[in-house]
Amino acid sequence: MHLWRHLERCGPFKTSSQQTLIQSSATNTSDTLWTFLQKASRELLTKLIIADERPFTLVKHPIFKQLIASLQPKFKLHGRTTLKKDVMDMHQEMKSTVSREIAEANRISLTTDLWTSSNQTPFMVISAHFISADWTLNKQIISFKMLPPPHTGLAIADQLLASIMEWKILDKVMSITVDNASSNTLQKGLYRLQPPATNVTSVAATDLAAGGCNRYNPFGGDNVAIAQVLSILRDKSHLPPHLDGKFFHVRCAAHIINLVVKDGLKTLSPAITKIRNSVRHIKASPLRKHQFKEMIESNNIKQQALPSVDVPTCWNSTYLMLKSALPYRDAFNSLSIHDSSYHDLPTYDEWEEIILMKDFLSLFNTATLKLGMTRHPSAHMLYSNMTSIDKLLKESLKSSALNIPGIVEPMQEKFDKYWKNMETFAGINLVFDPRYKLAMVEFLLADELGSSKSAITGRVDKIKEDIKMWFKDVAKGKQDKKSTSTNATTSIPQSKPLKSDQDARFKEFLAGKTMSSATSATAEIDLYLQEPTVPLDTQGFDILKWWSVNSLRFPTLSILARNTLTIPMTSIASELAFSTGGRVLSDSRNQLKPVTLEALICTQDWINTNDGLDQISTGELAEDEDSE
Fold first, then answer.
1. Radius of gyration (Cα) for the chain, nearest Å?
2. Polar residues compositional bias: what residue ranges (predicted)?
3. What was the pLDDT predicted at 240?
4. Which helix (H) or strand (E) holds 176?
5. 143 - beta bridge partners?
6. Where does 167-218 have alpha helices with state H?
7. Burial class (CB within 10 angstroms; exposed 0-12, middle 13-18, buried 19+) of 513
């Protein structure tokens, strides 16, 4: 009876268009309430298409439709046209967010890189690097555009300036990091750049064409155009007049390392080819692999993984091949005796050359990984990594081993050409690491110059003087900004004229004293340098966190640190830095319109950053597939 009365009083249950269920996760013992939302699921599908580089036609695939229906029958799967619209909408929404973040940044450093499609169409990618107010380093792709023919430096220069204007960062650009190939092309193009008739870059281009040619060029004769871009930004960006030349044009360290490695590998090409052919030989058939394992056992070699075959366009894979082959040197020697079909055994001298190159590549590999980080500062690591390379090269030049000096000499020449223009810049960056400061500079110079105290002192003093000059520029800029702000907000009409100009002159006197105090480089800099360095064994040391905590103690110096640590040392991420083949677009994206392609590339980068997907490499994602 009670049940019947209940049914009479209560109406029928109304179903909701939103599905609610209680789900229990294996990792979460507490039950959680989950509600299906069409909009949220639609956004996740859009993110998947963008982040994983899936084609728009995926939504038409029968198996994909079945999968979605099995997971959530209520989900309405739209067609490719609607999906494309969702992609463009997400791009615009995220672009607005990135634009606000960039607008709040004090200084921005740019990197440029060239990609190609499968039909050899070149694209230019521009990334912005900046440290936010909470001292977090950010990297965002802000432009991905096809280079119009002819593919000259003029096109590169025009596109770079157009992107700077589009994102309204003309007054924020601190530096541009480019590889040598792009730099050389860019220099020629910017030198010829003329103001377009109607273009957002017309103001900058006019300034460049009219005023840049006769200005002081801090980069030397081969870099005239880069200096001209600097002349545009110097007026708009308020770059420090003393140091902007040293900081503005940064050569990609990974590209320089690639050039040095290329010279070494070219000289050792016969020996490396023999190792490559040897590895291919033992992996050509199960029988050969079994025979090689017998050689390993007969030579009492502790077997690990068999040597790996390299990808010639990725020199780090060549390094891994040499490293994995060297422990089996005796096994290869034995194989040459027992296997008449094996003809690629390296000679004794070639084995010695390979040992040397393995040591070189190990150091270059470590340096490239450290300097290619995009989510952590790398500027303060340039000096120590490059001096380590320089030391190894110079020590090898003195080697008595056959052919070693001949191999190293072109590598040293290539390295010196780059390093001589970057050493002071790198030394300044190193000083802003509180674990090292000037002490590490002195230590490394002593390692290089020996007991020549005068030479060491001279170079250390030069670095310190540059920092002080930069400090004064920044302090003056802060004071000018403060004065402008004060004048703008405290302008009150005077009811009576001043009895004399004494008060006005006294204000100028006080402003001069304030300026003198603000620009005193010795107080704040010397305090920082005189304090003990942070212990090297400090676990989990975070250089940005250290400057964030100490920014109140070093208000002006922390601005310098923020600007310095923003500058990337490579124009590409470390996972791409080893390749000499460049970045190639997938076939599915190669067919898209340029505006759609830019939306996909930029938004993919922003999604990966926000969701932490940039910390997962492609190799990690494919690891399970390879292991099965």
1. 30
2. 484-494
3. 57
4. strand 173-178
5. 126
6. 180-192, 202-211
7. exposed
Q: Are 91 and 599 in contact (CB under 8 A)?
A: yes
SS3 state at 132: coil
pLDDT of residue 170: 86
| Total number of domains in the chain | 3
φ, ψ of residue 137 in degrees (nearest 5): -80, 130
- Judging by beta carbons within 10 Å of its beta carbon (0-12, 13-18, 19+), is residue 599 exposed, middle or buried? buried
Q: Tell me: do 274 and 297 sit in the same domain.
A: yes
Give the pLDDT mean for 602-620: 73
What is the spatial distance between Cα 571 and Cα 115, in angstroms, rounded to a whole number?
12
Cα–Cα distance between 66 and 77 in angstroms, integer? 11
Instruction: Kindly give the pairing relationship between strand 20-25 and strand 249-251.
Output: unpaired
| Residue 232 reports pLDDT greater than 70 | no
Residue 162 sits at φ, ψ, to 5 deg, of: -60, -40
Residue 231 has a pLDDT of 63
Same domain, 247 and 308: no
- Claim to verify: residue 245 and residue 333 sit in the same structural domain: no
| Predicted local confidence at residue 31, as pLDDT | 57
Which domain, by its residues, includes 364? 256-379+389-397
- Token duo for residue 407: 């191999």
pLDDT band at 477 (very low <50, low <70, confident <90, very high): low
Percent of all residues in the chain with a pLDDT value above 70, rounded to a whole number: 71
- Residue labelled with tokens 């590998």: 265
298 touches 334 (CB < 8 A): yes
φ, ψ (nearest 5 deg) of residue 606: -70, -40
For the chain, give percent helix, strand, coil, nearest 5.
Answer: 60, 10, 30
Distance between CA 622 and CA 98 in Å, rounded? 30
Amino acid at 207: D
Range in 205-209, 274-278, 418-422, 584-588 the model is least confident about: 205-209
When pLDDT is averaged across residues 90-98 and rounded to a whole number, the result is 97
- Alpha helices for 381-422 (secondary structure H): 382-397, 404-419
Cβ atoms 95, 113 nearer than 8 A = no
d(CA 385, CA 371): 8
Tell me if 351 sits within 8 A of 268, measured CB to CB. no
Asked, as a colleague might, if the bond just before 150 is cis with ω within 30 of 0, I would say yes
Q: 596, 88 in Cβ contact below 8 A?
A: yes
DSSP 309: P
Nearest to 107 by CA among 602, 478, 559: 559
Closest by Cα among 281, 364, 287 to 323: 364
Are 216 and 112 within one domain? yes
Instruction: Give this prediction's pTM.
Output: 0.77
Of residues 22 and 464, more confidence is placed in: 464
123-174 pLDDT, tens digit each: 889 999 999 999 999 999 999 998 877 666 667 777 888 899 999 998 888 8
Please compute the mean of the pLDDT values over residues 262-287 and round it to a whole number.
Answer: 90
Q: Same domain for 125 and 185? A: yes
What is the pLDDT at residue 614? Answer: 62
| Cβ-proximal residues to 65 (8 Å cutoff; 6+ apart), any chain | 59, 77
3-state secondary structure of 31: strand
- Same domain? For 474 and 445 the reply is yes
